[in-house]
Design brief:
Helices cover 42% and strands 12% of the residues. It is α/β, with parallel strands linked by helices. It has one domain: Rossmann fold (3-Layer(aba) Sandwich), CATH 3.40.50. Bound molecules: thiamine diphosphate and magnesium ion (MG).
Length: 362
């Protein structure tokens, strides 16, 4: 069964052509991310696909909650940056990708890894620093990696992943494949010189690279408004380099997916690079240690009203795409999966001391 996806079902969409739309400060409020031009998409998804998007978003949420709990217990150490609130962005962005495509991301990477289909048990074990982890416990939270899935990290240096993604996209073009490279980065990356250098070279080389900006309004404790001159929109940056760009409501998985489907189609046909800015929000601190003194509870509550993990299943039930019973059963399966992942990590062995320098290059 195929269902009309976007026009009626979306919890809100915002796609704009950079030259025509001036969003100004509205873009940073939850309400502004939701609208202004109304729905645009024409995609249609099966019931299975619609439920799968919920399953992934809920899995990411519960995985992250479990990470927080295990960090508090001291089972996970080092830095921990949770993706709570941004689930619709990662799931919608990665849904249209195929096996041959590369994904490169920053340190807030658990959601991307799960949406790309990395093994959940081995991801959790990696966070626990165990031998069974994706990188034998040597990468940790910020460096999830799986070459077999073409998931090339997990990078801790802000914007450091961008030239790496450019190289992968260049290789795809050079080898004549129709693969694309998706590079996720945060709003904080945009004040790094390498961001501009990468945009420029990607345009000069016309590589199949998708710049995917997750604008959650903050780089650590600093709001976009405090460090951004001019418009709070970033997608207009890309236009300066002749790169086509759109903004999309990052709390709306269908809106993100549709923008991404269109972009991937263009990239495969040789029309790269492209740029998508998703307006999103993290409900938790920058890292686990962040008390969020720099913003008000009202602001968080406003975005909470649009929580995709709550609003999306409500929409599925309202439009009779799924029953409440199906949603409850799906949640229960995911809860079990996450509990099993934690158990797998807890019961996995620590790496041997003799392995300390294996696979480590300097
Ligand atoms: C080159 C560099 N400078 C500073 C830092 C410290 N740092 C880590 S995360 C971060 C904020 C980045 O914010 P953003 O790109 O918006 O991503 P978000 O955390 O919001 O997902 C900073 C400044 C770093 N890791 N690398
Ligand atoms: Mg940010």
């Amino acid at each position: 069964m195929y269902l009309p996806a976007h026009q009626n079902l979306s919890t809100g969409v915002f796609m704009a052509s950079p030259a025509k739309t001036k969003t100004g400060k509205r873009a940073r409020s939850a309400a502004a991310a939701k609208s202004p031009n109304g729905a645009s998409g024409a995609g249609s998804y099966s019931k299975e696909q619609m439920l799968e998007m919920f399953r992934q978003m809920y899995l990411i949420r519960q995985f992250e909650v479990a990470c927080g709990e295990n960090y508090a217990k001291g089972h996970i150490r080092g830095f921990l940056h949770l993706y709570i609130g941004q689930e619709a962005t990662g799931v919608g962005a990665l849904a249209p990708l195929a096996e041959q495509d590369y994904v490169v991301t920053h340190y807030r990477d658990h959601g991307h890894a799960i949406a790309r289909g990395l093994d959940v048990n081995r991801s959790m074990a990696e966070l626990f620093g165990r031998k069974t982890g994706l990188s034998k416990g040597k990468g940790g939270s910020m460096h999830l990696f799986d070459a077999a899935k073409r998931f090339m990290g997990g990078h801790a240096i802000v914007a450091g992943q961008m030239p790496l993604a450019l190289g992968l996209a260049f290789a795809q073009k050079y080898q004549g494949t129709d693969g694309v490279t998706v590079c996720f980065f945060g709003d904080g990356s945009t004040n790094q010189g390498i961001y501009h250098e990468t945009l420029n070279l990607a345009a000069v080389w016309n590589v199949p690279m998708l710049f995917f900006l997750e604008n959650n309004g903050y780089g650590m404790g600093t709001s976009v408004e405090r460090v951004r001159a001019g418009s709070p929109d970033f997608y207009t940056d890309a236009e300066k380099y002749g790169i086509e760009a759109v903004a999309v409501d990052g709390m709306d998985v269908l809106a993100v997916r549709e923008a991404m489907e269109a972009a991937v189609k263009k990239l495969r046909a040789g029309g790269g690079p492209l740029f998508i800015e998703a307006k999103t929000f993290r409900y938790v601190g920058h890292s686990y240690a962040d008390g969020q003194k720099y913003r008000s509870n009202d602001e968080i509550d406003e975005w909470r009203k649009r929580d995709p993990v709550e609003t999306y299943p409500q929409m599925l039930v309202k439009h009779k795409i799924a029953t409440q019973k199906e949603i409850v059963a799906l949640r229960s399966d995911v809860d079990t999966q996450v509990a099993e992942a934690v158990k797998f990590a807890e019961e996995s062995p620590q790496p041997d001391a003799g392995e300390l320098f294996d696979d480590v290059y300097a």
